[in-house]
Amino acid sequence: MISTASDTAPARTHHSPRARKPNSVLIIGAGPGGLAAALLLAKAGLDVHVVERKSHVGGRCSAIEEQGFRFDLGPTFFLYPRVLDRIFKLIGRDLRTEIPMVRLDPQYRIAFGGGGELNCTPNLEQLETEVARLSPGDAQNVRRFLADNRVKMEQFRPCLERPFSGWRDLIRWQLIKLFPTLRPWASLDEELGRYFSDERIRLAFSFQSKYLGMSPFNCPSLFSILSFLEYEYGVWHPMGGCAAVSDGMARVAREMGVRITTNEDVKEVLFDGRKAVGVRTQSGEHRADALIINADFAHAMTKLVPNHLRRKWTDAKIEKKKFSCSTFMMYLGVEGRFDDLPHHTIHTAADYVQNLADIEQRHVLSDDPSFYVQNATPTDPSLAPPGMSTLYVLAPVTHQHPNVDWAKETPAFRAKLLKQLEKVGLVGVEKRIRFEKIVTPADWEHTYNVYRGATFSLAHSWGQMLHLRPRNRFDELESVYLVGGGTHPGSGLPVIYESARITSRLLLEDFAHDTEWLGAPGAAELPAPVAHW
Length: 533
What we know:
18 helices
């Protein structure tokens, strides 16, 4: 039997005779969802094997380490830690002990291309003062916005924690009753218009739609909960970066008996009829009773699963789906420090609407791109050699499209972004660069196996959410389950971790294991919220 992490973890009831012998589970990909599922399934007593094609764990939540510099490859905002807090408690561990992290204040600074800036602090009195500097009339609505979204979050949270296997689930959970709260007919920007008249303030509470790779002008109003979560539960920096979370999860998983093999590139999924029985890698075949796919959904389906085995998600149908934007990345190891620049800074284009249209509709590169820069070294000096800094620069851009040839466009766009950095006070950076790595949408597609380079996977429109998203128990195939941003509940670290709990529950039910210890969807969470100060 696989060893467990702690005798203090929630007890399990006696398994049925069928389940006394550990069932074997193979997980493709050691990304955040795959690692979270491995932790939960190992705790349940299953024989878990994770195969990862890269030399390290984490997927897009891993690190780039060169010349003493350490950068997160992908996510740098660690939000809503309660989800992972709960998973660690379920396996008998403490997240903050295993992976130390600090709460940021300010959470980030937003510099508006049209003029003005906002230091977004979790201290509500100070936040109201910040908002009042730009729009006095909007300051009085900050607390009302947060209060309304606290209600929205609690009402919708059960939907984020349970599977949706078809339209009957929509009826069963009576989502129609939530319509007045969710306002599915409204965009995120329209929802913010109920509280804030100044477009800069609306943007400050809606730019988080970029965590989903979407514009606030077409993102569903539901996602106003994202900015609420930042202020309610904090924006955190795990020491060592978000990749340290993946590293810590892998370490704990191995301690629990999970096998994680790296440099194992899956070439195909093996089937007996429509039932998945294992995978083939360059080193041979791996067999298991169940398969969890944590790879990019669209890439995995089109490259690893024969097209004739899929009906709803054929290659042709996947091609017609709506996908998120992509990102142009610059990882810069720079001589010197920037102690006056916040940990996170977002700069929005002067014409933000046109910038978004360039990305999502015209599929061209903007003359005045919005960008984000992380300056993590003042918070975490371990990320760079003494006297040096790590600058992580991200510009949202179109996913792969014939309009943009990155082999030709990269040098000019790099130069443009370096010039853009001057708008947040980073002058003369190019002369001080000691290490540099660039990742384009083409790299996301061809090096990191992300379909169309769409770094946030399928877009989060209502037509691609809940039961209309690829399902956690993948109904096209037998013994196949999904975790990650391409399935329900969606992309972003907190919901990716939650997808692992949803999927683990389904898999354990299918193999006649107890699932009560996982907690009921929508039940009160184990950790208490972090108090405001």
